[in-house]
Amino acid sequence: MVILDGMRVKPNGLLDFRSEVPLADFTTIELGGNAKYFVRCETVDEIRSALSFAEGEKLPVQILGGGSNIIFPDEGFDGLVLKVDLKGITFTDEGSYPSVIAAAGEVWDGFVKSCVENDLAGVECLSGIPGLVGATPIQNVGAYGQEVKDTIVSVRAIDRSLLEIVEFSQEECCFGYRNSIFKSQDKNRFVIVEVGYKLVKHGQPSLKYAELRNYVETRRKEAGETDLESIREAVLALRRGKSMVVDERDPNSRSVGSFFVNPVLSIAEYENFLGKLKENKIGESPSFKTAEGVKIPAAWLVENSGFHKGYRLGGVGISSNHALALINQSGTTKELLSLAASIEEAVFKKFGIALEREAVVVQRLDPYRNGSVNTKKDVTKSEFQK
Ligand SMILES: Cc1cc2nc3c(=O)[nH]c(=O)nc-3n(C[C@H](O)[C@H](O)[C@H](O)COP(=O)(O)OP(=O)(O)OC[C@H]3O[C@@H](n4cnc5c(N)ncnc54)[C@H](O)[C@@H]3O)c2cc1C
Fold first, then answer.
1. Fewer CB within 10 Å of terminal CB in the chain, N or C?
2. Annotated catalytic residue 258
3. Reduced DSSP (H G I as helix, E B as strand, rest coil) percent helix, strand, coil of the chain, to 5
4. Can you give the residue range of the structural domain that contains 72?
5. Phi, psi for residue 326 in degrees, rounded to 5
6. Within its chain, how far is the Cα of 128 from the centroid?
7. Is the minimum distance from the CB of 100 to ligand 1 under 6 angstroms?
8. Relative to the CA of 134, which ligand 1 atom is closest?
9. pLDDT tens digits, residue range 145-195?
10. 287, 273 in Cβ contact below 8 A?
11. Secondary structure of residue 120 in the 3-state scheme
């Protein structure tokens, strides 16, 4: 077994393995114990080397981006946490629909800002979402009427079992509401290294979302413009009002964003839900028809099951500004998951709906252990022992 002392010199001088690294420091909710090993990878080859090394050492691996949608256990992670740090954004001018390729380690909101500054429409409503580019295809991030699936044309990734680069077209990503192939059948199989987008040069900002449209309409009377820049500012202002922008001065933003996704019900499930409303003497609930079924706002379900904004349970609670954001004040992962479980139980009891968690809850050990043997090894064990 290779011994990797914390902060000691790195195998082959490239990879900076550290040991016993506090994971809370790398997550927006500031929870989690130590990673047994932790490494930042700035190139594709570094990712391959780290994966290959972990496979050789039978170390479980957890991929980490910006840590805004992930919850680590209090006991920590008994393996290697691999932080994706690949950088670079390339704009290619192709007339009205330029391509933009962004490396997985780019900060998402920085990428959005660059697009807006270059007068490229398509991601302006996704301003202020925390995290890195590489995680956005995984749950098809979305807000204020846009989703990344609307502009993504390709995703490049390393297949963890073969260490080979594969490329997915938009269709092959199988995007759905907060879902993709990377979150469903191929969960944890790939490390995304690059995402390609097609945007619209001098395009009109998207104003599909009623709350954003109303906000802008009111302001337009006062200020005029509805260009991409002003829509970005409007989205950021709306998000700040709900503590949906990470800000260390705002304790309500110490979260993973929405903890639960909005349930999408089939007709039969919706009828069952209507029956529950009647049983509970609740007149009606907000609902939206979508191509996938009837969407019920999870926030409404949470608030109508006895969990109000500002609710507290020990060191954790619910944001005072957003019923779906579970927050950490001075608590533990155990407390947070216990609060989540109480909410799930109450919603199920009252409305017959099983809430689905949006955030990734990491087990102490990596769920991805397919027993496969890597065929390509960039580094050997002895190289790491140098
Ligand atoms: C205040 C706040 C507001 C938010 N608002 C929104 C919102 O409006 N809309 C929305 O959709 N989400 C929102 N989120 C959730 C979150 O920001 C997104 O899901 C984001 O894309 C996660 O990115 P990340 O880099 O932080 O991923 P992490 O939290 O680091 O990782 C999340 C998951 O993705 C995996 N992963 C990360 N990078 C890679 C990679 N390169 N390759 C393979 N797997 C990878 C991890 O293994 C993990 O399973 C919000 C979160 C917060 C804290």
1. N
2. yes
3. 30, 25, 45
4. 11-86+370-385
5. -80, 135
6. 13
7. no
8. 41
9. 999 999 999 999 999 989 999 999 999 999 999 999 999 999 999 999 999
10. no
11. strand
pLDDT 10s digits, 245-260: 999 999 999 999 999 9
Angle, to 10 degrees, between the axis of helix 228-241 and the axis of helix 108-117?
150
Structure-token pair, residue 107: 């900060």
Max CA-CA distance within the chain?
A: 70
User: Which phi and psi (to 5°) does residue 63 adopt?
Assistant: -80, 140
Q: Is any atom of ligand 1 closer than 6 Å to the C-beta of 130?
A: yes
Residue type, 14: L
CATH number at residue 26: 3.30.43.10
Active site residue 57: no
DSSP assignment, residue 204? P
Q: Which of 381, 338, 366, 386 is nearest to 35 (CA)?
A: 366
Decide: 276 and 352 in contact? Cβ < 8 Å: yes
Residue 209 lies in a domain: no
Give the C-alpha separation, 164 to 159, whole Å: 5
Q: Is the pLDDT of residue 196 over 50?
A: yes
Let me know if residue 380 belongs to a domain: yes
